[in-house]
Amino acid sequence: MKNILNAPFMAEMIRTATNMYAHGWDERNGGNISMLLDEAEVREHLTFPAIVRTIPTGFEAPELDGKIFLVTGTGKYFKNVQYDPAKNLGIVRLVNSGTEAEVLWGFSDGGKFTSEFPAHMMSHVARLAVDPQNRVVMHCHPTNLLAMTYVHDLDERSFTRTLWQMCTECIVVFPDGVNVLPWMLCGTNEIGEATAKKMATARLVIWAQHGIYGAGRDLDETFGLIETAEKAAEVYLMIAHLPWKQTLTDDALKQIAARYGVTPREGYLE
Ligand SMILES: [Zn+2]
What is the Å distance from ligand 1's center to 187 Cα? Predict the structure, then answer.
């Protein structure tokens, strides 16, 4: 049996959480990550299935029955993940139509998965329906995107267009744009369902006055998606109060999309 702390998925998760903290996106216990694991890979590192305990999830997700996730713990700080992964992270397997989660490893102090577990699991269902290779859902509080939800209107087309205009790469990285949820109470099944609905058409979902959700095929891709949107928001906030002399035109954005072979969200360019 290989040491699970040396598993590539574990190393990547620890590095990513550490890096997100370093970016200032996950103050205190802010933020959470879930990553779908390959059962064969888990079996190389764990006696399977050695169930430590079972936790009710409070929702149904039959699409995820039997699926295994590496997920951050509730109340845990991203800054501490690297020092004690077994306490701050856990591996769970969803069973009984997703109504229960079997802890296979981690949450060693008796803890449990993030309070945003419903939003994560429902988002996995939504993204897997669009892209069977989706594995990661990531939530954090990037400063500039968050700030932008106070001063920019929350219309998704308008919000997306502003971000696209802030840097040439944006339309290449997120041609599907960003969807936006108006403020809702977090930690509930309701915000989970609303987020998942938004995830059907974009891999980035802003939670107004709170933060962002991103989804992708691996941790690097998902991190990079949020990183790029956050950079665009930073540029926007630097120039929002200044007179603009020029911007990226729709024609320029179309040229970029054509050159890089991406399809911008339907109806978002004139
Ligand atoms: Zn949050």
Answer: 9
Which neighbouring-strand residues pair with 113?
Answer: 73
Residue in 159, 266, 164, 211 with CA at minimum distance from that of residue 24: 211
116 catalytically annotated:
yes
φ and ψ at 24, to 5 degrees?
80, 20
Any idea what DSSP says for residue 80?
G
Using an 8 Å Cβ cutoff, are 136 and 219 in contact? yes
pLDDT in tens, 165-222: 999 999 999 999 999 999 999 999 999 999 999 999 999 999 999 999 999 999 999 9
Q: Where are the beta strands (DSSP E) in 57-203?
A: 68-72, 89-95, 100-106, 136-140, 178-181
- Active-site choice (41, 102, 116, 234): 116
Distance 140 CA to ligand 1 centre (A): 6
Q: How far apart are CA 200 and CA 233, in angstroms?
A: 23
Contact, 20 vs 31, CB < 8 A? Answer: yes
Torsional sign, CA 93, 118, 88, 53: negative
CA 67 to centroid of ligand 1, rounded, Å:
24
**How large is the greatest C-alpha to C-alpha distance in the chain, in angstroms?**
62
The number of helices, as runs of H, and strands, as runs of E, in the chain is: 10, 9
- In this structure, which amino acid lies at residue 138? M
Residue 176, H or E segment? none
pTM surpassing 0.90? yes
pLDDT in tens, 130-148: 999 999 999 999 999 999 9
